[in-house]
Specification:
single chain; alpha+beta; elongated; 48% strand; 18% helix
Amino acid sequence: MQFKISALAIAAFLLSAGCATKLAPPPDSQTIQQRKPTDAATVYVYRPHVDFAHRVGVYVSANGKRIVNLKDASFTITYWKPGLYHIAGEADVTASTWKLPEGDIEISGTGTYYIELERNIEMETHNEMNMMFINGMVIPVFTPVSSVVSSDEHWVVKEESAAKAQIAKLGYVEPISKDAP
């Protein structure tokens, strides 16, 4: 029985290690300018690291068009024409019940905008008792379980200096579509 548990643990580790996302190097400033249409703003959409749901990707849509699948601690660069955009997020796994925020963002010119999925999450951890059967004996096993106490998530346009400091710590993800939403 002990061998089966070890083999199962190794298999689970290998499967989860295979789920890691390889992030691309970000484009340099010259490439960003070359890709930018003259009538559009440069829009950075990013997701800083938080411990809760960090393995779940977030499909970000603007006006109903998917623009990126943001992984934990990642960003993308897209180009949007001035106007009002409805931003929505959707977990990239169907088993997730994580409700992501929606919001409206106004792009008023052709400058640079930084849109963050800002998340303030309060977690609580408690021990849960489970029973393990080994050689006919019942052994109690205590497992720490975390749950969300409160969650405040929303899309927010950030100031350039604060955004650049955050983005410098993140990995780059290519957008799903290079076209404006």
